[in-house]
Design goal:
It is found in: Cell membrane. GO terms for molecular function: ATP binding; phosphorelay sensor kinase activity. This protein has a five-stranded mixed β-sheet. It has a three-stranded antiparallel β-sheet with strand order 3-1-8. The protein is of the alpha+beta class and about 270 residues long. It is flat. Helix content is about 50%, strand content about 20%. It is built from seven helices and eight strands. It has helices spanning about 1-5, 10-65, 70-95, 110-125, 150-165, 210-215, 225-235, and strands at about 105-110, 130-135, 145, 170-175, 185-190, 235-245, 245-255, 265-270. The structure holds adenosine-5'-diphosphate. Adenosine-5'-diphosphate (ADP) binds near residues 191 and 219.
Length: about 270
């Protein structure tokens, strides 16, 4: 087949092109492999930290628990909060590790006001934090978007959870219609904010801004990277604006219509 290639016009170019394609595929594979390796090593490290705390408190209890009952409260508190953190991390890791092909996405018309209200209610029940929902003035028509309601709420939950962790004040979800027919969902907080130079990095897996200011606040730096993937899967865009010391706004941009298909509710597997 080599000879046949040679005989054709431009066969040499074709060969060179194949060589280039091959090399770039190998580079891609290698870089994916490196990413996988660092993902596994980061994940193990992050899981080991809370485990170490749990282990040391448990062995402290074993050794001294009987004669020092005052150790009980502190130890159990620590063991509990570290377990919660590990559980959250494991759930997020499992989701991130699942191949995209297996993320079943159900696209359809979604009422964003209703999705916001439901997320706010679920959040209130889970954390006892009040969330205000700010809908457009003229609500004679609901704001609709073409997306996956369940995954949108999952995404909102991640953003609300960050707002809760990094601000003490009122958290607001706003729903706005865009002039092009699309819509914006925002989660607004007036918390500690994110330094400008770190803003692009917060979507990286395991990235957390300055551990010293967030120590004691649960999290593994996985929420936003999962959020980005969720947004991607449901045809949305996720962006973050923040001013250090003033607060953060997370914006989900959604489009009004499906990309051409007329089915009102379709079940499909995201490529
Ligand atoms: P984490 O589990 O650490 O919150 P995320 O991926 O959700 O992980 O966020 C990454 C980092 O971005 C956080 O550790 C925090 O430093 C910063 N961050 C995210 N959301 C906010 C917010 N609303 N206000 C301030 N900082 C935030």
């Amino acid at each position: 087949s080599f000879r046949r290639l040679e005989q054709r016009d431009g066969a040499r170019d074709e060969l060179a092109e194949m060589g280039e394609t091959f090399n770039s595929m190998m580079d891609q594979l290698e870089s994916n492999y490196d990413k996988q390796k660092s993902f596994v090593s980061n994940a193990s490290h992050e899981l080991k930290t809370p485990l170490t705390v749990i282990e040391s408190y448990a062995s402290l209890l074993l050794r001294r628990g009987k004669d020092k009952p005052e150790l009980l409260e502190e130890s159990i508190q620590a063991i509990h909060s570290e377990s919660v953190r590990m559980k959250e991390m494991t759930e997020q890791l499992l989701l991130l590790a699942r191949p995209k092909e297996q993320w079943l996405v159900s696209l359809g018309q979604v009422d964003l006001g209703a999705a916001a209200e439901e997320s706010a209610r679920a959040f209130r029940n889970a954390y006892g934090r009040e969330i205000a929902v700010d809908l457009p003035e003229q609500m004679e028509q609901s704001v609709l978007a073409w997306t996956d309601a369940g995954k949108l709420k999952q995404l909102l939950f991640i953003l609300l959870d960050n707002a809760r962790k990094y601000s003490e004040e009122q958290i607001v979800i706003t729903v706005t219609r865009k002039s092009d027919g699309g819509a914006l969902l925002r989660v607004v907080d007036r918390g500690i904010g994110i330094p400008k130079e770190q803003l692009p990095k917060v979507f990286d897996r395991f990235y957390r801004v300055d551990e010293s200011r967030t120590r004691g606040i649960g999290g593994a730096g996985l929420g936003l990277s999962l959020g980005k993937e969720l947004a991607d899967a449901i045809g949305a865009e996720l962006t973050l604006d923040s001013v250090e010391g003033l607060g953060t706004t997370a914006t989900i941009t959604l489009s009004a219509k499906s990309n051409g298909d007329q089915v009102s509710f379709s079940q499909r597997v995201k490529k």
